[in-house]
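Annex B. Sample input.
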Amino acid sequence: MSSLAHAQPSISSIPSQCVVICGEAGSGKSSLVNLIAGTNIAGTSCDAGGCTAETNMYDNLMIQNETLKVKLVDTAGLDEGPRGTVPDTEARRILKKLLRTLTEQGDIHLIMYCVRGEREIRTLRRNYELIRSQVKRKVPIVLVVTCLESYQPDMEDWWRVNERTISNLGMTFAGHACITTATMTKPVFVERRTQSYDAVCKLIEQCRPSNSTRVDTESSLGTVHHVPSRETASSDKHPNVVIFGQAGAGKSSLVNLLAGKNVADTSIDLNCCTLKWKEYFVELNDGSYNIFDTGGLQEPQPPTSSQYLCAVENARSLIQKLERQGGIDLLIFCMRAGRFAATLRSNYRLFNEFLCEKKVPVVMVITRLENEVGEMDDWWERNKDTFRHQRFDVDGHACITAIRGNCPERYEQSRTTIRKLVKEFTAGEQKQVRRGDDVFVSLMQKLKLLLENSRSKDIVHHLTERCGLPPDIAKQLADRIKKDVVEEAS
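Annex B, continued. Sample output.
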């Protein structure tokens, strides 16, 4: 614990509560600190790199009309890649030690598990289990859901939509708050921020331990250089565009933005709404395209490993289909603006290197920039060096919003931008490098060669070293690939 910020003088008659705030990088933990404190005492950033490099403590904060005194502990974000501000392995080690120490000392009264509202619910359990395992039910854990400033009809509806899924996944919280930490000046946002402050303070007050009663820690839930595309085989061939990325990145909304109408199902809850790839025929003024919306790749961790393997298998079946349709013209890697999660780079490599062998142009589309101060493309200018450091080799990019919401001008600007990007990288007159169907054939030949030499372990090695998969998940995926190749050869 390194940084120490003091607010108002302490009032000795009011006992202080220690509140630890944790969650993945980019979930808004430092912004939550500022919301509770009522002033900007913690550094924040909407860029890709994490802004909390160490454990920061803010002591003697008087809140809720000076009726509550708190000590806030802001922790480094989880789930960043090995090149992140704090690599995930190190962040987890630090958090474990912090929680164990504070629990043993009896100096922790509440844990706030901070998550973004658009996050796919099943991915939340891994961090939940980490937190819960360290405090052994001795400290109440509450869920704080952030980035809900544009959620309709009201922020609390997020909980009503997702409560059952959370319960079914075995996650139990002593309370919850659906909030926004946005500091925009429109009246609707000011009102929601005030509601958010009250809701968080209420959690702190409700979980305040008394001398005569034990705090119930398990109460019921209440709560996206240029690489040319292939030559079009004939005039009636339409470019094949594949959109991929993590669950909740806004891939289906991107399809609708490109199409100019709602053709793909989207979801306001955190259950992945695209479990298998779906094909959409989109006609634009400058031509027609086959757009493929892939299943969201989430963290390859239990209990989601089965779903992750299905998503990868579905991606392979899509490549098989595209081989029969003339190959892939363009890959669109869709990511939401925010921190680099540990799986972001591995998902990029899984498609670009493992499934397509870096022979198809890849562009990156960054979503959720409706509230970006200045121009949306400013986000890229601030973060392009980080992408380069993380070795994301993309051929183009677009900074957009796929949500009309309160920013219709930015929405229409985004549609123009994404259509221009797709047209540029699927233009038939561009120089041919290699056809997408050759990519698939090459992949299958490589796999067969591995099998003939009894070297399927090489697949596991590639999946673990280059694609970042855990060894057990890589082994399961390699076994499935092996089975598919054997069946095809027979």
